[in-house]
Design goal:
Layout: H1 2-8, H2 14-24, H3 32-41, H4 47-68, H5 76-84, E1 166-169, E2 175-178, H6 191-201, H7 204-216, H8 224-231, H9 236-248, H10 255-258, H11 272-277, E3 321-322, H12 344-373, H13 377-380, E4 397-406, H14 409-414, E5 423-434, H15 436-446, E6 451-455, E7 458-467, E8 473-482, E9 494-506, H16 508-514
Antiparallel strand pairs: 1-2, 1-3, 4-5, 5-9, 6-7, 7-8, 8-9
């Protein structure tokens, strides 16, 4: 670590940097203490620091997903590729400076901040690169921006080139928030490998570093990378910090986070579903433009495809129109069809939907993996359902189910040195040939606290409530009733996918009193 501080000193000889930097900056778990030195002494807007933070964020997300059950038994290749990397981005040869100092050549793809870009101002618009063949785990290319994380390379942090992201308008005139798809450095891990890495990533040192960065964070736009790293940590203290930061920046909207993959394929703490619902949110206005004349033929949704709950490919879809913002992140967002402007509270509502659905996608992967390892688990899962989900709507077939009491006894034994904060998660995916309004009515009669909202491909029911049996807890309930049949009549029956999600975490007051207790009740 002293060596890391030495090479970051602007007075250090260039020859020393050339010699030691390729070793010191290896983005692998065993090198975490050294990487933290770079993160602590640097700024996330410095290209090298941004790159390290992106890799660390992706690795933490992959570890979290694998530990809870959404493992990828073939996902070790990304980690091995990172371990074999010997060439530090931006220092292939010649005389190089350090990030933030004159003479520094930015890591390939992590271009220096534009001279006309000031913190708090409008970020530059990134352009997607053309297709090409790139080696896995090689440094990102010139098109990569520290502001938007656009990068084309397999196995590297960044966003995939693809459909429109951000706020879009569906053909039905409904607003939809499409988060960018992140180019993950580590796309998944086997669970046994994740258990070896978890104590390093969930150590007090890392948690304290993240907490200190959140305390210093000025805004979502200035500090999105610190926020995304924090979002991958399932800790009560981190949730409290993020809630305060979101609330303080409510008027700016969530777009700086969605530009880096928040609400898409970056797996984050499910407890943040609760956190977002504690923010002031506002229902979207009904579309003022008429629906397209005529209806397309009813189509059956693709069945059993992870992450495709009866909806058009996500993110984005053919025929969707981008919003035309007067500013990149806030205020005055008006659709081309002249829809009312979306207020920040409306955009946080869309963010809440987007995050909930991304969590559902990963939990389905966990349920599918569990069913593969133990085919009888689906039958046994019925006994673990929460009271709210004991009865499902008629004529429905359970496709996937996953229940998590975090941490359970097994996890405490596997990771005895990790301090856990309690969380309970329930996920069920069912399919049926039904009328979406009838399905929504069934669940609303069972749960009077549910609010019904129209979304781009169906209906969203959600609620936030406080549970007082045992320790005070906040429970988020989400039911997504979706289809891909296009515009349908009020009585039409179509193939629907219903995803039910319940997340419980300690209330803020209970979390402050919990100390080392890792039990919800």
């Amino acid at each position: 670590m002293a060596l890391a501080a030495h090479v970051m000193n602007p007075n250090t000889r260039q020859a020393d940097r050339q010699l030691f930097m390729p070793i010191l900056t290896q983005p692998v778990p065993d090198n975490l203490p050294v990487l933290l030195v770079f993160l602590q002494k640097g700024d996330s807007k410095q290209p090298l620091v941004a790159w390290i933070m992106d890799v660390l964020t992706d690795m933490t997300a992959a570890v979290f997903a694998a530990v809870l059950g959404a493992e990828d038994p073939h996902g070790l290749n990304d980690l091995l590729a990172l371990a074999q990397q010997r060439q530090i981005p931006g220092m292939p040869g010649g005389q190089r400076g350090m990030p933030g100092y004159p003479g520094y050549s930015s890591p390939e793809g992590y271009g220096s901040m534009p001279t006309d870009y000031a913190p708090g101002g409008s970020p530059p618009v990134a352009t997607f690169p053309g297709p090409g063949q790139y080696p896995g785990a090689s440094p990102p290319g010139e098109e990569y921006s520290t502001e938007t994380s656009m990068g084309p390379y397999p196995g590297q942090p960044g966003m995939r080139p693809g459909p429109q992201v951000g706020l879009v308008t569906t053909p039905q005139g409904l607003a939809k928030l499409v988060a960018a798809e992140r180019r993950l450095a580590v796309r998944g891990l086997p669970r046994d490998v994740a258990l070896q890495i978890a104590p390093k990533l969930w150590s007090p040192t890392v948690i304290d570093f993240v907490d200190s960065r959140l305390r210093q964070a000025r805004s979502l736009q200035d500090n999105p990378r610190e926020i995304l790293l924090a979002a991958t940590l399932p800790m009560d203290m981190t949730r409290t910090r993020l809630a305060a930061l979101f609330r303080a920046n409510l008027d700016n909207g969530p777009e700086p986070l969605t530009a880096l993959g928040f609400g898409n394929n970056l797996f984050v703490d499910p407890g943040l579903v609760v956190v977002l619902k504690t923010l002031p949110r506002e229902d979207l206005p009904k579309p003022s433009t008429p629906f397209p004349q005529g209806r397309p033929p009813l189509r059956r949704p693709p069945r059993g495809q992870p992450g495709q709950p009866g909806m058009r490919p996500y993110p984005g879809a053919e025929g969707e129109q981008p919003y035309s913002p007067t500013g990149p992140y806030g205020g005055g967002m008006t659709s081309p069809q002249g829809q009312p402007a979306l207020t920040p509270k409306m955009r946080w509502m869309l963010m809440s939907e987007s995050l909930g659905r991304s969590i559902c996608k990963k939990l389905k992967e966990a349920g599918d993996r569990l069913a593969t390892l133990d085919p009888s688990s689906l039958d046994a899962a019925v006994q673990k359902r929460p009271p709210e989900f004991q009865t499902l709507h008629p004529n429905s077939a359970v496709i996937a189910e996953f229940h998590l009491d975090w941490p359970n006894t097994q996890l405490k034994q596997e990771l005895p040195d990790v301090q856990f904060d309690p969380m309970r998660v329930h996920y069920i995916r069912v399919e049926s040939h039904s009328n979406p309004n009838v399905v929504a009515g069934f669940y609303r009669r069972k749960l009077s606290t549910l609010n019904q909202r129209t979304i781009s491909d169906g209906i969203w029911l959600d609620a936030l409530q406080t549970l007082t049996d045992g320790k005070p807890r906040r429970q988020s309930l989400d039911i997504f009733i979706t289809h891909d049949a296009g515009e349908i009549g009020p009585q039409d029956q179509v193939d629907v996918v219903v995803e039910l999600l319940s997340v419980e975490i300690l209330s803020r007051e209970a979390a402050a009193r919990a100390g080392s207790d890792s039990v919800l009740r």
